[in-house]
Amino acid sequence: MPSILDLLRSRLSSLLPSELKPNELRHLLSPRRHPLLLCQRRATLIVNRVRLFAFLFAVLTPLWSLIDLMVFEPRLWAALAGFRMMACLAFTCLLLFYRPSGNLLDAYRAIAILFAIPTIFYIASHTLLGSYQLAQFSAVVGAGYAFLPFVLMAGLTIFPLTLVENLVLSSLLLLAQALAGYLSWATLNWPSFAGAFWLLILIAGVASLASMSQLAFMFALVRQAIRDPLTGVFSRGSGEEILRLQWDSAQRKDGPLALAFIDLDHFKSINDNHGHESGDQVLREAARRLVATLRGSDSLLRWGGEEFLLIMPETDMQQAHMALERIVGQGLGVRPDGAPLTASIGLAERRCDRIADCRDLLELADKRMYYAKMSGRNRLCATDPEAVQPPQAFVMRD
């Protein structure tokens, strides 16, 4: 009998894009272990939407002062107008000076600033209005200020956020609402406040579902765009983007970065003698075996044909050498005739080879892979062809 948890999971899965695999549902819960390119594109999208939100608030916030001018006494209007101009200035600064960097921490900072500005304005204006006796139409307009938390909570729906991220932001808005109620404790209408608070919680739930749905569609679309359709590993275009990101990170930290070109030996003969369908099957199996032995931080991409590129961040030459011996030594699969599938590998590392540009690192790994092929195949070359030490042959297993 399926458990209630399994039933709930299956129901939730049916509400999400069909392209999203069951084991990828965890990506909707927490931002941990998100693919690098997804993090970059999600961060860029979040900052761009923060700037759009800031633009709308920068324009609309001061315009409401015209309504305030018609219903509030001059002293109250002047104080509220001052609050609005400060909020408008803050939104304008956010719009003008915050630019997408592709960094998720910068995106978190942007969205935190965006929601902090109107939240502070709400608490300040709510406290100020509570100190005045409002009547008739002015009371109606003053009550409109209480809708700001609902606008902010609904605004979460435009961001592709995980459940954890939604809970953090929603909790902050709920705390702001509770603080506003505490500051007006003496005149608080408890039934009205409790109803508004419960409605805010309901909106938070709807906003979380909308944000997670956005993230699910974004994850599926990004995965389709960056993956090689045959092998499921990263495509060349997305791999170049990953390489640039990892190179920039390695340069900032002055850390190691290893690249390995992997070329499957005598692959053309498989297509010629057994057909392209058999060749595709060999490619898929080789990619599956390579991926199964990689670390979470490593990236495997299909560079073209039977060539793969393995990007290993935070990995020096010795560590990369040992990792490749372990990975390839476990076997890449078998050829259609039953013989073990082998590979020629060229390895280069940023610090060890004293490379100043990622393109040079790529070319060096490619050059060493070619030398491994010329030296007999089924081996790893981690030095220049002019070096005395010959490429090291692998001991392969099926």
UniProtKB/TrEMBL annotation:
GO terms for biological process: cell adhesion involved in single-species biofilm formation; negative regulation of bacterial-type flagellum-dependent cell motility. It is found in: Cell inner membrane. Its cofactor is Mg(2+). The keyword Calcium does not apply. It comes from the Bacteria. Its EC number is 2.7.7.65. InterPro entries: Diguanylate_Cyclase, GGDEF_dom, Nucleotide_cyclase, Rev_trsase/Diguanyl_cyclase. Keywords: Membrane, Transmembrane, Transmembrane helix. Gene3D superfamilies: 3.30.70.270. NCBIfam families: GGDEF. This is diguanylate cyclase.
